[in-house]
Amino acid sequence: MKRIKPTGIVLPIIFFVAVYLTGCTQNAAPTSRTSLDWLGTTITITVYDRVNSNTMDAVFSRIEDIHTKMSLQLPTSEISRINAAAGDSPVSVSPDTYYVIQRAMEIAEASQGAFDPTIGPLVSLWDITGTPYLPTQAELDELIPLVNYRLVELSPENRSVYLPLQGMKLDLGAIAKGYAADESASILRDAGVEHAILDLGGNIVVMGNKPDDSPWRVGIQNPFSPRGSHLAIYAAKNQTLVSSGMYERFFIQDGIRYHHILDPSTGFPAEAGIAGVTIISDSSILADALSTASFVLGVEKGMNLISRYPGVEAIFITYGQEIITSKSMNNQLNYTDEDFSNTTYSGTR
């Protein structure tokens, strides 16, 4: 099988664009810092309170620490060591990595495998973020048995993780950014910061209101338009917003778009009629994983999944240009694109 030329592939984009921020710096000029080095994405932290450089250093050091432990691109990371030992021996890991794997396993169970942290073999085969490759059905059939979160063995006594089949691979790419966002917000909160926006490659955390006490206004990306085109604006306070979409990373072959969100049960990009989904919560690690799971599950099963988590809301955008929201959030959402119809989810569709 020849590797195909990567036509149409794009880098991760910011799904949520904080808009109309002018005039919100009554208390202090904003302090902003950006890094391109960690978690495979652009990270920007903007604080609208007085904050010293040591606090910002601590935030970015924490993100670097999480990257060092959980990045698949680093052969020395704890995740890479777990994968290298698959079928051979358990690997003891740090409390950070063990916690994130535990949370990943919990959401995998709740979603019945729609979110599966053992998706690594399929992600490596498609290589959509590198040199995209369209696998054969035979190649997928060979790897799918390795994708099964139920096989992962966790030992809390020594925080060890064991993958029992050679070739299994953990991939925390759909949850580690959420953990890093939560940890970053915690550091800022402990330093007395009340007004800030954290953007970890589209994982958005807003702290408090704007300094003028109005909500942060966060644009929801139109999945069918260029970056920065929003179809709605969400009024947020002390919340995180995380999105998954077919527009983030993809390639096109023979007129067919192959996006990066794979269905663990088929090995192919998920086909549930969803162009994008946004999860809103007070936990970025939870929203990160639920956005992937909900994209794979589709509207009905995705809404049923998020209903298990108090305070979690969802915005689904279908290929039919319909915006479907969970029941209790429309008063915070202002629609801005008349090409889309909007519906509040009320049950089985």
TrEMBL record:
It catalyses: L-threonyl-[protein] + FAD = FMN-L-threonyl-[protein] + AMP + H(+). GO terms for molecular function: metal ion binding; transferase activity. It comes from the Bacteria. The keyword Plastid does not apply. Keywords: FAD, Flavoprotein, Magnesium, Metal-binding, Transferase. Magnesium. Can also use manganese. SUPFAM superfamilies: ApbE-like. The keyword RNA-binding does not apply. Pfam families: ApbE. Its cofactor is Mg(2+); Mn(2+). Its EC number is 2.7.1.180. Mg(2+) binds at residues 174, 288, 292. Belongs to the ApbE family. This is FAD:protein FMN transferase. It comes from Spirochaeta lutea.
